[in-house]
Amino acid sequence: MTTPRHIQIRTGARADAPIDPMLLTRRRFLAGTMGGIGGMALASLSASAAEAGGLPGLPIGPHFAPKAKRIIYLVQSGGPSQLDLFDHKPLLQERNGEELPDSIRQGQRLTGMSGNQSTLPLAGAQFKFRRHGECGMWVSELLPHTAGIVDKLCFVRSMHTDAINHDPAITFFQTGSEIAGRPSLGSWLSYGLGSANRNLPAFVVLVTRDKGGQPLYARLWGNGFLDSRHQGVQLRAGADPVLYLADPEGVSPASRRRMLDGIRALDELQQQRSSDPSVRSRIAQYELAHRMQMSVPEVTDLSDEPDSTFELYGEDARRPGSFAANCLLARRLAERDVRFIQLYHQGWDQHGGLPAGIRVQCRETDQPSAALVLDLERRGMLEDTLVIWGGEFGRTNYSQGRLTANDYGRDHHPRCFTMWMAGGGMKPGTIHGETDEYGYNVVRDPVHVHDLNATVLHQLGFDHERLTFHHQGRDFRLTDVHGRVVRELLT
Questions:
Q1: Nearby residues of 371 by Cβ (< 8 Å), 6 or more positions away
Q2: Could you write out the DSSP letters of every residue in 279-293?
Q3: Which of 32, 279, 289, 478 could form a disulfide with 271 if both were Cys (CB 3.0 to 4.6 A apart)?
């Protein structure tokens, strides 16, 4: 049955667009006031959207053959200093303590934390750098394990972003907008691909335990205006990985099953009356939570891992909630076909005391990050698993606060920073982009946040301009209104 054109115009929907729940509410009103005509229009629109895979909760499928099946994203919250880890600048050491030249800064904005300083002294890294691998990537002595696998990694030294402060910057990376409320990258992938394991969420989040630093919010892994089943599920360390998942004392599995069956029957009646898609989502989430009562304890129990695994990831992997333990857990989730696994590690925001602070951060993250890549490779999973490492922006080449012989800090710097990726069709042993000799501006092959996200979506089989959702009168996408696939990074 063909949908009357005037119905499409009044609802603002395209026949091939995903159905907005708010539009369904208006259609329900139309069905009640216009009888059979409204009902037929709703049925026709629902059928068209279902055929296109656009109903909330139904995957639309990739646009072309993907190179990667899943992503493990190692988010280094706070902004790691690229100048002390990856972007070797001997000139900063030669001119340590000298003023940042105006010709380099070019009047660019600073944060309120260093913008009022009377002087901006250049701060050379206090750590030794050396070239590694056949690719010749410069890596700091702080990252010996990462240095050992540089030929498996794809480095981008010319990342840049729009935001200069933490909250908008990390929100921009995760959602494509500095303003909260948009769907996160993992939610877009869940929406596009669906789940490959009916017993686990498509999108799982792990946060390093007991770390200070910039706050993290659940909206960073939120579903925004997408169906609620696409939001990330956080697994916590300890005996109760997901809050309220376990049955309380006195409730048997059989009685829980009867309760869920009763709730489902009531929800089905509500669905028949209202045609509200959120009811279907609620049913699906209840059922997934029930199945997770078995699947989550199994995947989070590391007791079946051999000693050799803990030797690879480091002894810290035996401590639940550590970054190392979460890297190992990420591999176990990837083995069980979870689409998107995101690890957050806080503490990289080193405005002062950087030499001491960054040593701690690298000690916690270097070995497990490299181990994850090696572990995936030896299991034959690196080829179709994309691993991403990076923060929300970089750090300044000048010292925030007083520069001494043994200490300095670095302020936020959105104009250039370094990230790396591995597997998932990324070209190994690649060093992409270049910054100036002061490490202040990108001078070759810039990569914007939208470019990175467009490239990531491409590796999962999506044209970033076509992975959209119709909401409030227009099509939204992760990359907003621009972005390009950086094909130089791809095999």
A1: 145, 312, 313, 314, 324, 327
A2: HHHHHHHHHHHHHHH
A3: 279
Structural domains of the chain sorted by starting position, each given as residue range(s) with its CATH number in brackets? 5-51 (no CATH), 70-244+300-489 (3.40.720.10)
**pLDDT tens digits, one per residue of 323-379:** 999 999 999 999 999 999 999 999 999 999 999 999 999 999 999 999 999 999 999
- In contact, 432 and 154? CB cutoff 8 Å: yes
Query: Helix (H, G, I), strand (E, B), or coil: what is residue 417?
Result: strand
**How does DSSP assign 92-143, residue by residue?**
HHHTTTSBPPHHHHTT----TTTTT-S--BB---SS-EEEETTTTEEEETT-
Burial of 255 (0-12, 13-18, 19+ CB in 10 A): exposed
Q: Please tell me the pTM assigned to this model.
A: 0.86
* Per-residue pLDDT at 81: 98
Going by the DSSP 8-state scheme, the letter that residue 301 receives in this structure is -
Helix (H, G, I), strand (E, B) or coil at 242: coil
pLDDT at 206 over 90: yes
429 DSSP assignment: T
Which of these, 267, 207, 196, 202, lies nearest to 232 by C-alpha position? 202
Cα-Cα end-to-end distance for the chain: 45
